[in-house]
Amino acid sequence: MKFAHLADIHIGGWREPKIRDISMQSFKSVISMCVSEKVDFVVISGDIFNTAIPSIDLLKEAVSQFVLLKEN
Questions:
Q1: What is the pLDDT of residue 33?
Q2: Backbone angles phi, psi at 11, to 5 degrees
Q3: Is the pLDDT at 13 greater than 90, yes or no?
Q4: 9 contact partners, CB below 8 Å, separation of at least 6
Q5: Interval 23-59: pLDDT, tens
Q6: 36 and 1 in contact (C-beta within 8 Å)?
Q7: Which residues of 51-64 are buried (b: 16+ CB within 10 A; e: fewer)?
């Protein structure tokens, strides 16, 4: 059985747009790795977003990645 453990992702946690984009790219990369490695489940401990009310753009991107993970 394979699993992935992610912690304190904090999507959107950076003020600098370039670093904020890198943060989302890293998240997408990890999800892609989970799909390619065919993990059985993913444990996320800590915060996914940096704020209780993330921007709609970040929310849409994150949800699309979770859908991709679920479908695979």
A1: 97
A2: -60, 135
A3: no
A4: 23, 27, 44, 46, 47, 48, 49
A5: 899 999 999 999 999 999 999 999 999 889 988 999 9
A6: no
A7: eeebeeebeebbee
The string of DSSP codes covering 4-71 is: EEEE---BT--SSHHHHHHHHHHHHHHHHHHHHTT-SEEEEES-SBSSSS--HHHHHHHHHHHHHHHH
pLDDT greater than 90 at residue 15: no
- Give dist(CA 49, CA 60) in Å, integer: 12
Helices 56-71 & 17-36 angle (0-180, nearest 10): 10
Mean pLDDT across the stretch 6-20? 88
Is residue 57 within 8 Å of 20, Cβ to Cβ?
Answer: no
Distance between CA 44 and CA 31 in Å, rounded? 12
